[in-house]
Amino acid sequence: MAARYDSIGRTYTATRQTDPRIAARIWAALGDARTVVNVGAGAGSYEPPDREVTAVEPSAVMIAQRPPHAARAVQATAEHLPFEDDSFDAAMAVLTLHHWSDWRAGCEEVEQADALAAQVEVVPVPWDCCDGFFSAFWRRPEAYLDPAVRAGISTMAKREDELADGLARLRADLESGEWARRHAGLLEREEMDLGYRLLIGRP
User: Fold this and answer.
1) Claim: this prediction has a pTM higher than 0.70
2) Range of the domain at 162
């Protein structure tokens, strides 16, 4: 993951910001934990400002984009956390599992921080989501035509040849009004369940 984000993550913070509605769900799930390890922390989105956070991130490029006030970051991977067992009250990992080279090993490591998932909550995506992850623009598809937006989405970054035909069709449908006609129902919705889930574990 470090090599990939060292390559694609250089403008990450231009389009990836903390969405306060999603953040509120994550922070509530942390309960009364005072010390938190954020695994696959990236540039620091969703780190609670009122806890003692330690960030774990393999990419130096991503660490460099963390704001000055962000928690200290340790360059390491989820599969090999450089901490003793039970070093933190809670662990968090946001939109990162799909990047781990061995997600089972990573989850076993995180479990040592008392964060084995037991409760599952739906996290709907608001239509005006501030965080430009893959599904954030479900009601604003014109955003996918912006190279800067695509650069902040790992599944789309640096895949211009693969995406060219689809993007051309999307542009044509937007310009002709076909997209709005076909998806008129979406334009009336404030949020959607697009498969994002909050997994909450208790010791």
Assistant:
1) yes
2) 125-192
The total number of structural domains that make up the chain:
2
Residues 29 and 66 in one domain: yes
Per-position DSSP letters for 74-99, written without gaps between them: E---GGG--S-TT-SSEEE--S-GGG
Q: Please indicate, yes or no, whether residues 26 and 109 belong to a single structural domain of this protein.
A: yes
Alpha carbon of residue 86 to chain centroid: 25
> 113 with 157, same domain?
no
With a pLDDT cut of 70, the percent of the chain lying above it is 92
Question: One-letter amino acid identity for 68?
Answer: P
Of 114, 140, 79, 99, nearest in space to 201 by CA: 114
Q: Are the CB atoms for 93 and 78 separated by under 8 Å? A: yes
d(CA 140, CA 132): 11
Please give the C-alpha separations between residue 193 and each of 36, 97, 121, 125, in angstroms, as whole numbers. Answer: 27, 19, 11, 6
Query: Residue 131 corresponds to which tokens in the numbers above?
Result: 């965080």
